[in-house]
């Protein structure tokens, strides 16, 4: 893996007044480019030729310039570095670049190590436990004694996940070799989006910085969401969990206290385990009828649910006078860090 020192040495050569925001045209890139534009920053979209047209359809969301590639595994690091680019990792970025992300010789917003921690299930569980989060019980194929969800490796947006209730059902339904088996938690899914700034003071203080709640969503998954319609229509459905979109959530205000505490604990733990996590992250959880939160994942980057709020959210309006998306917040943090000569604090 490329060292932090190497990344920071590349950053040293940058013209701090001409920093550009770069990412792959997918996932949350419209929001990231839009937010950067609002902050007066220039943007670069790494794009396949065939997708450029889609981005050109959104004049305020498209990048200022494109770098056209044949394959996302061939991201031209030298060209990006020459252009003073800081790369913003999003879900598709992490998925498409795969192992290459570890070596990508371009300054990246946030702590690259946090992506390694979220991507490795053993590390992720260590992180969630160290944060004191309540997590659903884990099973082996032999010990399944209740409804469980079987998950496959990688951020697949729930694709291929299945529900089993016994060792026999597991054997029948699951053919893959790598999986985890987790107790199925009934309840309401809640995905709060946070932003941690090591540069800010005041507000909800954590370590020497400040934690912000940007917004909350829940995902729309096919076909589990709305499966009642099929059931009412007399169609039997096997539940599946493929993410197809997101919808907004606002929480009972008393629950916001707990949500903030959980976010703070995740940040504290990130410092104990891998030198912190500046920038956006999300805790994926389910709230039961007893109002207990069970966490099943942490995403150490911007998540697609933030796309609901390109003009701010019912939480950011209490912190900012102007519309503040997570994309814009990232651009603002980079601008501010450059001005304060503290880019090293938010880049790896
Ligand atoms: P991504 O990495 O894109 O966030 P993923 O492929 O890692 O997704 P998860 O987020 O772990 O998958 O889970 C996908 C969906 O499965 C969740 O959004 C939720 O609807 C459901 N789910 C996950 N774990 C549980 C659980 N323990 N109980 C009930 N439902 C669950």
Quick overview:
The chain has 348 residues and is an alpha+beta fold. 32% of the residues lie in helices and 24% in strands. It is built from twelve helices and 14 strands.
Can you characterise this structure?
- The protein folds into 2 domains: 4-134 and 186-345, ATP-grasp fold, B domain (D-amino Acid Aminotransferase, Chain A, domain 1, 2-Layer Sandwich), CATH 3.30.470.20; 138-183, Dna Ligase, domain 1, CATH 3.30.1490.
- 32% of the residues lie in helices and 24% in strands.
- The protein has 12 helices and 14 strands.
- The strands form 3 sheets. Strands 9, 10, 11, 12, 13 and 14 form a 6-stranded antiparallel β-sheet that branches.
- The structure holds adenosine-5'-triphosphate.
- The site of adenosine-5'-triphosphate (ATP) has 20 residues, from strand 6, strand 11, strand 13 and strand 14.
């Amino acid at each position: 893996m490329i060292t932090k020192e190497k990344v920071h040495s590349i950053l040293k050569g940058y013209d701090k007044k001409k920093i550009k925001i770069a990412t792959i045209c997918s996932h949350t890139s419209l929001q990231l480019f839009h937010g950067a534009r609002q902050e007066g920053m220039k943007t670069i979209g790494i794009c396949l030729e065939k997708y450029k047209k889609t981005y050109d359809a959104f004049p305020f969301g498209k990048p200022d310039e494109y770098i056209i590639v044949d394959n996302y595994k061939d991201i031209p690091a030298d060209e990006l570095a020459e252009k003073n680019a800081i790369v913003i990792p999003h879900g598709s970025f992490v998925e498409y670049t795969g192992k290459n992300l570890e070596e990508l010789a371009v300054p990246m917003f946030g702590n690259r190590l946090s992506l390694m921690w979220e991507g490795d299930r053993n590390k992720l569980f260590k992180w969630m436990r160290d944060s004191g989060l309540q997590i659903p019980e884990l099973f082996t194929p032999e010990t399944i004694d209740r409804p469980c969800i079987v998950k496959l490796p990688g951020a697949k947006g729930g694709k291929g996940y299945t529900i089993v209730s016994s060792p026999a059902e597991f054997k029948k339904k699951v053919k893959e070799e790598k999986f985890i088996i987790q107790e199925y938690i009934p309840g309401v899914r809640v995905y709060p989006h946070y932003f941690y700034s090591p540069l800010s003071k005041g507000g909800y203080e954590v370590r020497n910085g400040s934690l912000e709640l940007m917004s909350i969503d829940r995902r729309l998954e096919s076909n589990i969401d709305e499966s009642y319609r099929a059931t009412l229509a007399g169609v039997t459905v096997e539940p599946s969990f493929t993410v197809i979109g997101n919808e907004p959530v606002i929480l009972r205000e008393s629950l916001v206290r707990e949500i903030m505490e959980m976010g703070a604990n995740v940040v504290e733990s990130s410092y104990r385990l891998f030198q912190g996590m500046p920038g956006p992250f999300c805790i994926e959880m389910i709230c039961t009828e007893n109002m207990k939160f069970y966490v099943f994942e942490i995403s150490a980057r911007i998540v697609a649910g933030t796309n609901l709020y390109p003009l701010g959210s019912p939480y950011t309006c209490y912190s900012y006078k102007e519309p503040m998306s997570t994309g814009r917040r990232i651009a603002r943090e980079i601008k501010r860090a450059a001005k304060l000569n503290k880019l090293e604090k938010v880049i790896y």
